[in-house]
Amino acid sequence: MTSRIDLLTQPEVKEFIRENVNADPNKLILNPPASFRANIKEIASQILSRQKAKGKLESWASNFDIIMPPPLSIEQASSEATSQYKGNLLFGDHLVDLTGGMGIDCLSLSESFKRTTYVERDSDLCKVFSHNLKALNRKIEVINSNANDYLETHSFDKNNTMVYVDPARRDPHKNRVFRIADCSPNLTELMPALSKKTSQVLVKYSPLLDVSSLIKSIDHIKELHVVSVKNDCKELLLLIDFSFKGESQIKCINLETDQQAFSFSMKEEHSASPVYGNYKQFIYEPNSSIMKAGAFNKVAEIFNVSKLANNTHLYTSNEIIESFPGRIYQVIDTVNKKSIKAYAKDGKINVITRNYPLNPQELKKKWKLKDGGRYYLLAFSDQNNKAQMIIANRFDQ
Which of 19, 203, 254, 343 is a plausible cystine mate for 238, CB 3.0–4.6 Å? Predict the structure, then answer.
């Protein structure tokens, strides 16, 4: 029986994938060429993975010598932008990636180390990664083992070995907010073994986890990076240093923008005292990393802007603060039937709600609106809990 790797490295299969890389995989499965009928599902899966990798893992999508992981793995994988960002956080002699997976992060991180060990419990993923290493002309040690067993059976120089862990959700189909214990490996259970083997650990978590809960649950977090790409929050990165005992720094990053990183600690957030006020000429919406991190008071203090209300995470000023890390809107009108008709051409306007009785869909239904157009309808509650609606332009575009 032909193995998956043998099948996908056959010249005629690689050429078929190249020629049909933009085709509909479902149509290929329904009407496959006779020569590929027996293996069309596997081949179609490769095509779908390459399509999902476009714009996210461009160097993989365009390299037909690489065997792509399943489409779901592509969806859950780090983008090249976030992988490169992680590559700047760890460096040294030896990197151990305890949860190798498809190897995107491992490859990026390995560039900062003299040698790298990839550890993965799935034997098929190990075989695929080994093949891809040859295609990429890269040298990384591949070990088929789970994280716990590997730590128990291997020893290395604690001061010169850094560890990377990307715990997977035990049930990736559940959409609810989840806990550290819902992930495998469970970091809290792994911490004693890690502290004996290494001085630093970089851990990647989904942004569904709560930032403050992570800091309370895990000791020695030197830095917690909340990473977004173009204002879409992608991951939480914990830099654990077993010699560190101070206040964790939270760094809010928005990649592929010109916005500077915003750093704070929970202690600073709790002690910050924002000024509250009615909306002025400019309104500010923090980027997704700052919103996820919960720096609602500190961001107002640092940038000297007024907050519209305690639970309305929008800010305002009369003078423009162009360095504010987020979207900037310029107020141009209040909302009434006349102004809606004037600014919502063909019923199109972008609707944003913050601490407002209706969500965007409900508000659009009420006013018979749809997304699009140049202008924005901002709906929010002010410091007196009064509902407000205004028309605005994006100043930062």
Answer: 203
CATH class of 78-257: alpha beta
Distance CA 386, CA 353 (A): 13
Please state the domain extents for the chain: 4-70, 78-257, 271-394
Residue type, 221: I
200-205 and 232-241 beta bridge pairing: antiparallel
Q: Which pTM value belongs to this model?
A: 0.91
Rounded distance between C-alpha atoms, residue 104 and residue 80, angstroms: 8
Radius of gyration, alpha carbons of the chain? 25
Let me know if the fold of 4-70 is the same as that of 78-257.
no
Cβ burial, residue 198 (10 Å; 0-12/13-18/19+)? buried
Fold topology of 4-70: Arc Repressor Mutant, subunit A (1.10.10)
- Check the CA dihedral 63-124-100-153 and report its sign: negative
Tens digits of per-residue pLDDT, 290-319?
999 999 999 999 999 999 999 999 999 999
Strand partners, 285: 327
